[in-house]
Amino acid sequence: MTIEILQFNAFAPFLENGLRDRFLVHRWFEIDDREAWLNGRGSAVRGIVTGGNLGVPTALIERLPALGIIAISGVGFDKVDLELAGRRSIRVTNTPDVLTDDVADLTLGLIVSQFRSLAACDRYVREGRWPAAPYPLGRKLTGRRFGLVGFGRIGAAIAARLAPIGPVAYHATADKRNQLRYFSDPVQLAQHSDVLIVATSANPSTVGLIGREVLDALGPAGVLVNIARGSIVIEKELIAALVEKRIAGAALDVFADEPTVPEALRALPNVVFTPHIGSATHETRENMARMVMASLDAYFAGTPVPNAVV
Ligand code: 8YV
Q1: What is the edge-to-edge ordering of all strands in the sheet holding 45-51?
Q2: How confident is the model at residue 263 (pLDDT cuts 50, 70, 90)?
Q3: Whether the CB of 96 sits within 6 Å of ligand 1
């Protein structure tokens, strides 16, 4: 019997092809009249594949009575209603570990880029402005104090990369009893940091955690880096802090309402942007695709499902 699944967003060819080889794939993002489609085919859908950045709206899960698995290509499961999934015995899977290094590498790149204006320097050379004047001086990175908000797999990988550059401290729900200085209060961590890096999962205790108080504690020489989820930072407070120069700058891979980045934020010269590319390398996306397919294969074969969070 053909298994029907709903693909929530576009993926790289190795995942798209793998899904098509196995299933009858409906591409949600290409369906115009979704209401009519749900009435006609909704009851046939047994699986959803989605990105961690998108998840699945609860209202959609509620329209799919035969749904048995939501396979997330991503580590974050903050945009899937786990409580509803648990109640309906829907398995939810993710792709941890394989993306950790890429996200940590990108974080290092964003920090260097912020202190040394790499993106602006690139434009400067391309636009032929170098002959007119040398590029303005940047800020020295080595010796800065780094503060990690979150110390899971990704936080630890970032800490390992930053340790040779400057002292690293962290805030997490519990003291991990490692070599690094621990702060139970994110405001105190910010006070003791030149660069505050958001590397925690989004959950009820972290959404909106970085607001005015933390940003003001970071202070006018401080830089905020977010590679986790836009929802953890109160975006309008961040914009206000940057505009009013209550912090020095930011480096952002994630945003509150992706792919929309507010004009007020895009206009700021003291911010470095990447378009949510933390895990976006060929190698890692291929590994993530393998994990997604392994979870789906196991579920539909009735064997233990790897990487299940529910
Ligand atoms: C990706 C992510 O953007 O892992 C996550 O939670 O947000 C990123 O890896 C996304 O999941 C791509 O599908």
Answers
A1: 24-27, 4-7, 45-51, 69-73, 91-93
A2: very high
A3: no
Condensed to tens digits (0 to 9), the pLDDT of residues 180-201 reads 999 999 999 999 999 999 999 9
Phi, psi torsion values for 71, nearest 5 degrees: -100, 115
Cα–Cα distance, 69 to 48 (Å, whole number): 6
Token pair listed for 294: 């392994």
The residue type at 99: L
Side-chain-facing half-sphere of 85: CA atoms under 13 Å? 23
73 alpha carbon to ligand 1 midpoint, in Å? 6
CA-229 nearest atom, ligand 1? 7
Element at 225 (helix H, strand E): strand 223-226
Kind plus residue range of the DSSP H or E element containing 5? strand 4-7
Side chain identity, residue 85: A
User: Which structural domains are found in the chain, ordered by start?
Assistant: 4-96+282-301 (3.40.50.720), 100-273 (3.40.50.720)
Q: Is the pLDDT of residue 1 over 80?
A: no
Q: Which residue matches tokens 């790499």?
A: 118
Extended strands (E) in 81-129: 91-93
Q: Which amino acid is at 259?
A: P
Residue with the two structure tokens 């209401």: 35
Residue 55 near ligand 1, beta carbon < 6 Å: no
Instruction: With CA atoms as reference, report the closest residue to 292 among 12, 6, 19, 1.
Output: 19
Strand order in the sheet with 181-182: 181-182, 168-171, 146-149, 195-198, 223-226, 249-252, 271-273
Contact by Cβ (8 Å): 155, 104: no
Instruction: Give tens-digit pLDDT for 13-60.
Output: 999 999 999 999 999 999 999 999 999 999 999 999 999 999 999 999
Is the minimum distance from the CB of 53 to ligand 1 under 6 angstroms?
A: yes
**CA 129 to chain CA mean position, Å:** 35
